[in-house]
UniProtKB/TrEMBL annotation, chains A, B:
PANTHER family: TRANSCRIPTIONAL REGULATOR, GNTR FAMILY, TRANSCRIPTIONAL REGULATORY PROTEIN. Keywords: DNA-binding, Transcription, Transcription regulation. Coiled coil: none annotated. PROSITE patterns: HTH_GNTR. It comes from the Bacteria. Pfam families: FCD, GntR. This is AsnC family transcriptional regulator. Residues 3-70 form the HTH gntR-type domain.
Length: 216, 216
DNA sequence: GTCAATGCTCTTGCATACAAGATTTATCGT
DNA sequence: ACGATAAATCTTGTATGCAAGAGCATTGAC
């Protein structure tokens, strides 16, 4: 329970940003956060410095911290990179997966099927996350997995918006099927291509995102 | 000159780590750093929190901060991701480069030629960095460019070791030539493939890296 | 002589205090 | 009445102080 205070604050504030409790552009007042969490300003500042280093907030000298607002264009760029990393994870997974990896992937895929056919988009959201994390793990690249998890986390709110689009859940699940097939067949290039397409938000999916962002 | 103290400390310590002044595994004593830079412990701690968030150091509760030592395997993983990101940057650059981008890339390439044929591997190191940054910029993806620069920076010490290997500078420059050609020809897939190969450290280049690391 | 236990010291973690810049409000002048 | 300037207040940035835990040394026992 010692250093955990800063770590706890970091997670709490980060979650607050991701769950949109702290909206983009919002000011993060140090004393306010300190009293809210029942600590002094020091650990709050240390947590904010970490979020600043990650790129979630911006600290303007003498003017406080604000939640960064990545415009639609930058969000698109982030998905572009995410697609590339997922593609790499998929291709590595196809070459390196073990029996345990196969089991985990198939289990997550089965859960996705359940929540998808039940039409439960919230449940699908979590099962989808497990599915993708199973692929990261199967890539057997710790660094890649970390990068993917971090980016996935940052894109969480927008991913969530996307699933609200009509039929997106069903489409997503269908794509998962092909991805699983490619990976388990050991087809690295096919897995890479499919995952890249699955993750990237080209064409009308980008328009949908912009529209949903604007209406928020 | 206000918040810049923390930022300055962050950069100084980060540079110290990258230039191996603070070797992997070294303890970073707060008071020691504070007196060394003529400040109090508070900004030092805040800088350390940032480096911790980036993943350059590890802060063990009540036991201080140590420089992270990524073993050879993890370094390989980092190069693997770097290769993928550079490949993406190259493919985007091939599709999006402007006249100004072409000029910058060619200028950096010309500088590389100078330092390469002069056999000056230190100079080549810097020109090489400019060359790669020119490609990031030409990708016209701000987020991708940031990610590339950050990873490039973290891999700096190992990249530097690599250039010491016999003929690596000449080989590197030759690869640059083909990359420039592919990008300026607008051949996105070729640019991606060449850059990926250029950056990744497969086969004997990995052995060289491990050997050089061990002898350090 | 060696191992273990206890106490001391040193470092970290958090809080508070103080200083400096930014913002807001109030007052004065036109 | 509106705008500008100055003062007051609020917030951030840095230093210092205090408490608690981890490491180290010394001493005692077997």
């Amino acid at each position: 329970m010692s250093e955990n205070v800063v770590q706890r604050l970091r997670d709490e504030i980060e979650n607050g940003i991701i769950s949109n409790d702290f909206a983009p552009g919002a000011r993060l007042d140090e004393v306010q956060l300190a009293t809210r969490f029942g600590v002094s300003r020091t650990p709050v500042r240390e947590a904010l410095m970490q979020l600043n280093a990650i790129g979630l907030i911006e600290i303007r000298p003498r003017r406080g911290a604000v939640v960064i607002d990545p415009g639609p264009h930058r969000i698109f760029e982030m998905f572009e990179v995410m697609a590339e990393l997922e593609g790499l994870a998929g291709s590595l997974a196809a070459r390196r997966f073990t029996d345990a990896d196969r089991t985990t992937i198939l289990a997550a895929h089965a859960d996705c099927e359940r929540s998808s056919s039940a039409g439960n988009s919230d449940a699908y959201y979590y099962d989808n996350e497990r599915f993708h994390k199973a692929i990261y793990a199967a890539s057997h690249s710790g660094f890649l997995a970390e990068q993917c998890v971090a980016l996935h986390r940052r894109l969480q709110p927008y991913r969530r918006l996307q699933l609200r689009v009509r039929n997106r859940v069903a489409t997503s699940f269908a794509e998962h099927g092909a991805i699983v097939e490619a990976i388990l067949a050991g087809d690295a290039e096919q897995a890479r291509t499919l995952l890249r397409q699955h993750v990237s938000i080209q064409g009308e999916r980008f328009s949908d995102l912009v529209a949903t962002l604007a209406s928020r």
